[in-house]
């Protein structure tokens, strides 16, 4: 329960672009190494990248999906604000994953020290070759739904009928 009780501190960072501030929801997961510490360090790294943490969920231990012969995951989610554009945010998250030992050419759904996914980016719907927001499978994943529910009951993201 350390993650719930630890305070996330906002840091003043300069915007990397003229993009307006957006509220985002990011899911975090880890099933290798010191999982709780990796998730805490990822939150700190996000803040250094201009992703200002507003709220965080508690940690959830969950079974792996698809490839089940691997360790259980610790999962969490954060709500943050950022002036990063969606592609800049994705790049920042991928860089943080790599800094924490993730091999992006590894097995899909395989073990990983850190996994960071953009679940919501404001009320925007994005569908490009590299990014789909809202995350296309978040509603099918209890390991995302439970932490996101911790953040706020009013965090609904874009409506599905738009």
From TrEMBL:
Its EC number is 2.7.6.3. One of its GO terms (biological process) is tetrahydrofolate biosynthetic process. Pfam families: HPPK. GO terms for molecular function: 2-amino-4-hydroxy-6-hydroxymethyldihydropteridine diphosphokinase activity; ATP binding; kinase activity. Coiled coil: none annotated. Keywords: ATP-binding, Folate biosynthesis, Kinase, Nucleotide-binding, Transferase. Residues 108-119 form the 7,8-dihydro-6-hydroxymethylpterin-pyrophosphokinase domain. InterPro entries: Hppk, Hppk_sf. SUPFAM superfamilies: 6-hydroxymethyl-7,8-dihydropterin pyrophosphokinase, HPPK. Pathway: Cofactor biosynthesis; tetrahydrofolate biosynthesis; 2-amino-4-hydroxy-6-hydroxymethyl-7,8-dihydropteridine diphosphate from 7,8-dihydroneopterin triphosphate: step 4/4. CDD domains: HPPK (cd00483). PANTHER family: 2-AMINO-4-HYDROXY-6-HYDROXYMETHYLDIHYDROPTERIDINE PYROPHOSPHOKINASE. This is 2-amino-4-hydroxy-6-hydroxymethyldihydropteridine diphosphokinase. It comes from Pyramimonas obovata.
